[in-house]
Amino acid sequence: MKVLAAMSGGVDSAVAAARAVDAGHDVVGVHLALSRMPGTLRTGSRGCCTIEDSMDAQRAANLIGIPYYVWDFSERFKLDVVDDFVAEYSAGRTPNPCMRCNEKIKFAALLEKAIDLGFDAVCTGHYARLERSTGGALELHRASDEAKDQSYVLGVLTAEQLAHSMFPLGDTPSKAVVRAEAAARGLSVAAKPDSHDICFIPDGDTRGWLAERVGAENGAILDREGRVIGDHDGAHAFTVGQRRGLRLGVPADDGKPRFVLEVRPKTNEVVVGPKEALAIAQIAGHRFSWAGRPLDEPTHWFDCDVQIRAHADPVPARARVQDGRDGTEFVVVPTEPLDGVAPGQTAVVYLGTRVLGQFTIDRTVSAVPVGAASTAVGS
């Protein structure tokens, strides 16, 4: 096959490209330039798309012996990832920019261009597996190494995208094996630290970065009963589950810490309460997709696992697709309440190790309602 290897400049994508060559594929390496101003991206161990990463990727491609190119996706990245990030925070939601980057850039824009140029598949260094069901359908599964599993951030991929994807590291037992292989191949990135944090916020100050783009305006901090107990410099700086950075002038009756329960961008208010009020009994979202073949009868309740963060443990649940107030929505009811769920987060639904699909959380129902009424957060 003719394979386009997406090379971030890290050890995983370099080894994935090398394995694709070993498998006999015709491989071409490509690095994505995501900013026209490199100083706006995080560098060192925190970045993944900087000039130094591009140079690391080129050295790896040269050693592996494959052609190497840099493609400018900066405009698409700004529109689909950076601008979306700002818009979601402005609406009081907590987005996952890495999830959006996979959805809109690596497996949409990149894959579309690759297919147009005659490539059969895009190869990445993600830790996930592709398997065929007994009926022949292609399915996305967790990696063999659960500690490094990245199937969550790939939950946005559709059946068509999976058909043109390749994950050579999916069956690797550990990251240590990948690093050892990279060292044996002579790759200079063998000991390079993993990237983390948001690449387009250079200093890691998300609150300050958002304030420059959304604006900072004083507002009230309320308790669950609606009483003003503090003030803030802008609701966009807060996310559900946050404890630090709250300016509360009225102590809690029980003396315990309080946490952000809800962000209201329209009124510039932040609602706080006890930790137990973060427990969520139900989540739902109408922006959902299937990772491969959907269930035959998704409107019937079925048993599954749900994961709401990249490194969170899966939680047993029941789920179905139903008609909701904003149209058809995916509803999940966990067997035990979820903790600190924020609208805008992505919920990925699993059947065993298989990724069934995902949705953006629009609506949650508290397991600890105020009085006798349930609280819909993010409505």
UniProtKB/TrEMBL annotation:
Subcellular location: Cytoplasm
Record-linked CDD domains: MnmA_TRMU-like (cd01998)
Gene, per the UniProt record: mnmA
Annotated Gene Ontology cellular component terms: cytoplasm
UniProtKB keywords: ATP-binding, Cytoplasm, Disulfide bond, Nucleotide-binding, RNA-binding, Transferase, tRNA processing, tRNA-binding
Residues annotated as binding ATP: 6-13, 32, 125
Gene Ontology terms describing biological process: tRNA wobble position uridine thiolation
Keyword Nucleotide-binding set for record: yes
UniProt-listed NCBIfam families: PRK00143.1, trmU
Site keyed Interaction with tRNA: positions: 126, 345
Main subcellular location of this protein, as a coarse class: cytoplasm
Species the sequence originates in: Labedella populi
UniProt-listed InterPro entries: MnmA-like, MnmA-like_C, MnmA-like_central, MnmA-like_central_sf, Rossmann-like_a/b/a_fold
Catalytic activity: S-sulfanyl-L-cysteinyl-[protein] + uridine(34) in tRNA + AH2 + ATP = 2-thiouridine(34) in tRNA + L-cysteinyl-[protein] + A + AMP + diphosphate + H(+)
One family name in Pfam for this protein: tRNA_Me_trans_C
Record's keyword annotation contains ATP-binding: yes
Family: Belongs to the MnmA/TRMU family.
Domain tRNA-specific 2-thiouridylase MnmA-like C-terminal: 283-357
Enzyme class: transferase
Identification of the protein by name: tRNA-specific 2-thiouridylase MnmA
GO molecular function, one term: tRNA-uridine 2-sulfurtransferase activity
Protein purpose: Catalyzes the 2-thiolation of uridine at the wobble position (U34) of tRNA, leading to the formation of s(2)U34.
